Amino acid sequence: MSIPLLLPDILLLGLGVMILALDLARVKASLVWNVAWMGLIAVLVVLNLIPAGWDRAWFGGNWNLSNFGLLMREFFILSALVTTLLARSNFVRGEEGFGPMRYKPEFLAALIFVTFGAITVVSSKDLLTLFVGLELATIPLYFLVAWNKENAKASEAATKFVLLGSTSTATMLFGMSYLYGFAGSLRFANIGEAVASSPTSPLLWIAVLFLTAGIGFKLTLFPFHSWAPDVYDGASTPITAFLSVSSKATAISFLIIMVYGPLAAIQVQLQPLLILLSAATMTVGNLGAMKQTRLRRFMAWSSIAQAGYILAALTGPAMSARSSVVFYLFTYAFSNYLVFFIASLVSDRREQTFASLTGLSRQKPWLGAALAIGLFSLAGIPPVAGFVGKFMLFGSAAKAGHFAFLIFVGVNTVIGLYCYLQVLKAGWVDTGEEAQEEANKNLRLSFTEGASITLLTLLVLGAGIAPWLGNNIAAVLQYGP
Amino acid sequence: MQPTTFEIVFPLTVLAMLGIAVPAGIMIANQAINPQKKGTRSKGEPYECGLGQTAGNAGERYSIKFYLVAMLFLVFDLEVAFLYPWALSFLKGGWDLLWILLTFLVILEAGYMYLWNKGAFDWNDATEK
Q1: How far is B103 from chain A (nearest CA, A)?
Q2: What is the dihedral of CA A175, A179, A182, A184, to 10 degrees?
Q3: Which of A19, A58, A101, A262 has the fewest other C-beta atoms within 10 Å?
Q4: Can you tell me the ipTM of this complex?
Q5: Which residues of chain B neighbour A24 with C-beta distances below 8 Å?
Q6: Omega within 30 of 0 (cis) for the link into A229
Q7: What pTM was estimated for this model as a whole?
Q8: Looking at beta carbons, which residues of chain A come within 8 Å of B110?
Q9: Across the interface, do A24 and B110 touch by the CB < 8 Å criterion?
């Protein structure tokens, strides 16, 4: 039958349930940890066995497998795997002076359910499944941010997250209701026909406005980005990393599905809105990153700017937008997780600020090199992967022909480079923090951390030089959406 | 045929008389069988879950378990709410509908078992064990 095609999704859900069940059976903590990361690798292997080229539906058209969906599944499961590896140190030694976190099985299960929610978003062909997936991908993050109960800042961050997130969900639902009222159906195919037949209807544009506002929260677009610095700073490092990668990827998948699905007929009219949001977001992100001293807060502002860059690609045509966004998401994930791994390393019983990185290049040269590679990739310097990713993103935007916008984007990239160089300066050039440098000299990496950092560095370097990632993505997407 | 005034008023009168007579009769019978002295002060106060005093400062602390019960009630009440439309269309749906609902219920009951084992239903803490 066709159940084997659904196997990765079923296995992922089963993995989450199994972790909780193992916890009920009171097995050793290390067994739960091993089941988690080995299970995620198993799901990844099963996923890679599925050939591309499918576009079929199950459950009466409610669950779809498309090529874009396959690629994003790969991305989300990989992201969950790296977060699981990153979270290990938080449960073993804690960070920033707090003790080790507790309730690891629930943490891992919640991460897996968020991943499944993200997969639901990319498996949807109607508004209801899309919304359910989005909620499943957001609500566990509310309590994942607050996981460390001793940390008052985390509780404050989670409160802000819940309040603003719920408001934006309400806004998005309002938009969806108007879209349903306009089209008379929840299914994307029917909505697409209705949009094509009356693209200037005010009802449609109100719906688009509210939908953009709702999803703009999750993607940290310009007027809806105010939650990001506080929430990223209050959450623990693995959750911040997961938020900056998977949460944004879910939101941009939502936008790709909507803009090139039901709203495809008005994509040209949407371009000014997307350009405005993208330009404002990247400017705000780059300017906000300038004065930061805490690493997670800086990464929050940096990820706001990155969201602006990714949104720029949606001004282009469907094929180039999808392939460039997927490629950029992979390179962005690798580089972001790399920086977060290093940030997690230097926060053992210390504050996680720029000063904590002092002397990293002198005491641990290869960590300094890894940091440099990660930051250059985020900034978009050749030959690392981030450059190729940005090139593809802006190439997609260039196909729409808004060249003044592209010049503005280029200027923003330079401003962003300045911000990333501040972090590099802290790790490579700064002196004067003797205590931090001493602590960096005595850094001890566990096998997980060392292997992950090495692998991520090689991926960031390799994805820029060797064409395997780009070629694979293009090959999968050539079969269709 | 219009109801007469008598036909409207008489049942209401019977209801009113019973409403007075039955509780009064029970209380009289109670006092006759088991005569009480004055009774303690606290027996006369109104009762409410979780509150130590029903009048006075409202800022008194109460157990967090009430919040947990409310959350769990919400979840399982929504489960029941999904059962109602299923029940209406079940007879027209055939056996497939039964398996679908059983899957739904099994998933939710798995969560119930998880809560049970984690101690969410224990009103008092582990001192009972």
Answers
A1: 14
A2: -130
A3: A58
A4: 0.76
A5: 113-114, 117-118
A6: no
A7: 0.89
A8: 17
A9: no
